[in-house]
């Protein structure tokens, strides 16, 4: 389902969601919502009335961010911001998931600068919080730790994301739709696929062990060899769980012996 543009309500709802996630206003769980595009993609799909296609696009974007880490809370590219713009543009213009990645990455990089600007504004709040701490002012600490940083996030993100969605997304979507099927989008698709592969490689580098690579190769060749059977992901997940259980069981038995 393709849309000509986003309404004011749609743009505002997505902007409010991004601000809430970036501010961690929903508690510690919002840290994971910020790092993973999946929930933001779901919200965008829900708001735009096309959850299925939104999640297909978001799944491709998720692959790029699988191996990213956030030292000190800062990421080189903000997943929630990237998804909030790339998914609507892809839905509006009918982009393939791999083509949407090429939009998500630069938008996410701009979002990281916005996050750093939020850090800068929070330095002034920290000074106020230190004053409240020295006075053992409980209400003041709540204001400095919870309320004011949340307000700063909403003031920064809501207007910018709203303007980007309401005014920018339709323009980008119309431009990309006019170029659909050409060489440019073939290049974008190839680049997007490469970035997804890079994300998988990074996660393997971060958490993988050489002894576990055989399982990755087994899963890959099973997926390719059995593609004609149209086995869904849930079935593969169950098979993977069984293989993992057997591996742990046998290795534990050998260790005890």
Automatic annotation (TrEMBL):
The keyword Thylakoid does not apply. It is found in: Cell membrane. The chain crosses the membrane at residues 41-65, 101-121, 141-169, 184-204, 211-229, 235-255. This is PTS system mannose-specific IIC component. One of its GO terms (biological process) is phosphoenolpyruvate-dependent sugar phosphotransferase system. The keyword Cell membrane applies. GO terms for cellular component: plasma membrane. It comes from Fonticella tunisiensis. Pfam families: EII-Sor. The lineage of its organism: Bacteria, Bacillati, Bacillota, Clostridia, Eubacteriales.
């Amino acid at each position: 389902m393709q849309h000509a543009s986003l309404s004011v309500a749609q743009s505002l709802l997505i902007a409010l969601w991004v601000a809430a996630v970036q501010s961690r206003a929903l508690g510690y769980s919002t840290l994971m919502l910020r790092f993973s595009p999946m929930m933001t993609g779901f919200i965008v799909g829900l708001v735009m009335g096309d959850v299925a296609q939104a999640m297909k696009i978001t799944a491709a974007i998720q692959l790029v961010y699988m191996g990213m880490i956030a030292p000190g809370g800062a990421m080189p590219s903000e997943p929630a911001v990237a998804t909030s713009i790339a998914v609507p543009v892809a839905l509006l213009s009918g982009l393939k998931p791999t083509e949407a990645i090429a939009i998500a990455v630069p938008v996410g990089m701009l979002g990281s600068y916005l996050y750093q600007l939020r850090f800068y504004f929070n330095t002034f709040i920290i000074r106020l919080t230190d004053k409240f701490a020295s006075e053992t002012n409980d209400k003041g600490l709540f204001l400095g730790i919870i309320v004011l940083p949340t307000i700063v996030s909403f003031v920064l993100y809501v207007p910018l994301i709203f303007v980007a969605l309401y005014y920018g997304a339709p323009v980008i979507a119309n431009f990309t739709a006019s170029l659909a099927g050409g060489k440019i989008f073939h290049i974008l698709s190839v680049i997007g696929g490469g970035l997804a592969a890079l994300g998988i490689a990074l996660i393997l580098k971060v958490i993988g062990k050489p002894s576990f690579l055989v399982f990755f190769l087994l899963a890959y060749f099973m997926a390719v060899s059995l593609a004609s059977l149209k086995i869904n992901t849930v079935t593969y997940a169950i098979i993977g769980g069984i293989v993992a259980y057997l591996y742990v069981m046998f290795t534990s038995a050998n260790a005890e012996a």
